Amino acid sequence: MRVLALRALRLGVGAVLLVAGALKLRDPTTFATEIANYQFWPALAPYLAASLPTAEVLVGVALLALPLSWRRPAALAALALFAMFLLAVGSAYFRGINIECGCFGTGGGPITALTLLRNLGLIAAAAVVLFGEPHPPRHPPRHPPRHPTDRPTDRPTDRASPDGGPA
Amino acid sequence: MRAALLLGLSMVIGLGVNAVRPNGVALRSFAAPALCGAPPSNHSAGSAMPAVSVVPPEEAAGLCGDPQTIIADVRPEKEFALGHVTGAIHLPCAASGSVADAAAGQVAGRRTLIVYGDGTGDAQPVADEMRRRINRPELRILVLAGGFPAWSQAGLACSSGACPDCQVQKAASR
C-alpha cells in the first residue's frame, strides 16, 4: 500500500511537471511576459522562460521513467523548482500584484491563495517522494567471498604469509 | 549532485533549443509588453489623437451614469476590493498587455474612458497607454484629479467588493 501510494505521488508530480513544462514550451515569449509581470527581476525573464520549461519537462521525465538511481535526485530537483515557484507566487501575492500565475503557460489563471496552497501541496508531494523512495542498491563487491570461512579475520597471521607477502 | 546536474543540464538544453527554434524568445531584445511599459514619447506621435485630460471628481461624476462612459481603476486588487467607483473595471498598471487588450475591447463603442488611481500620477501612465492602444480620436480619455481619495472626499458614489469584471478580463486574456 505504501509503495503504491509513493508510486502514485511520484507519477503525479512527474506528470504535473511534464504537462506544465510542455505547455510553457509552446509559447516562450508569452511565458517570458508572464515572468516579467512578477516585477522581480524582469531582465532575467527571457532566460528563465527559455530554460525553466525544459527543466520541468526533463525532471518530469526523470520522475516518470528513469531508473531508481535517478528518482531521488529528480525529486530533489522537483522540490527546488516548486520552492522557487512558491517564492515567486508568494512574493506577487503578498505584494498585491494582480497578475496571471503563468504556472501552466498562459492558462494558469490569476494568483490566489489557492495557487499558494497548490504549490505547498506539490512541495509536500515532492518531499515525500524524496524521503520515501528507497536508496538504489549498492554495487556488489567485485570479488565476493566464496565461502564464509574465506572471510579475512583480524588475526594478522590469516592475512599475510610469514614472509610478509600476500596469503 | 545528480539533482544539480539534472537541473543545470536541462536548463542549458533549454537555452540551446530556444536559440535554434524559430519562435524562441529573444533573450537580449525581449521587452515585456506590460500596460505601463511604454515610454511617454511613444504616444501616437504625429497622429491627431486628442491628449488625455485631467478632470475634477465633480465633472467625472457627471459622466458616471452615462452608458457611453467606462471607468478604470488602476490601483492594486486589494485596494480595489476595499472600495472603488461604482461600475469601475480593474486595470492595474502591472497588468500584462493581454489584459490591457481585453480592457480595450470593453472600451469599444464607448465615448469616454475615465481612469483613476491613488492620485493623479499613477493613473496618467495607464491613461496614456490606453490612448496609444485605442486608435479612436472620438474617444475621450480622462484622468480623475486626485484619484480615489478625492472621489471619496467629495462623497461620490462608490462600491466595494471583488471586481466581477476582473475574472472576465483575465479569461479573455487567455
Write the layout of secondary structure elements.
The complex is a heterodimer of chains A (167) and B (174).
Chain A (H helix, E strand, L loop, with lengths): L1 H25 L1 H9 L8 H21 L2 H28 L17 H20 L23 H4 L8
Chain B lengths: L1 H19 L32 E3 L1 H7 L5 E5 L3 H6 L1 E2 L3 E2 L6 H11 L4 E5 L7 H10 L6 E5 L2 H7 L4 E2 L4 H10 L1
Parallel strand pairs in B: 1-6, 2-4, 2-5, 5-6
Antiparallel strand pairs in B: 3-7
Helix pairs in contact in B: 4-7
- The whole-number mean of residue pLDDT values of chain B reads 78
Count of DSSP-assigned helices of chain B: 7
What separation lies between the terminal Cα atoms of chain B? Answer: 39 Å
Please state the oligomeric state of the protein chains shown: heterodimer
Instruction: Enumerate the spans of chain B where pLDDT stays under 50 for 5 or more consecutive residues.
Output: 38-46, 168-174
Identify the overall geometry of chain B: elongated
Strand order in the sheet with the most strands of chain B: 1-6-5-2-4
What is the string of SSEs of chain B from the N terminus onward?
Answer: HEHEHEEHEHEHEH
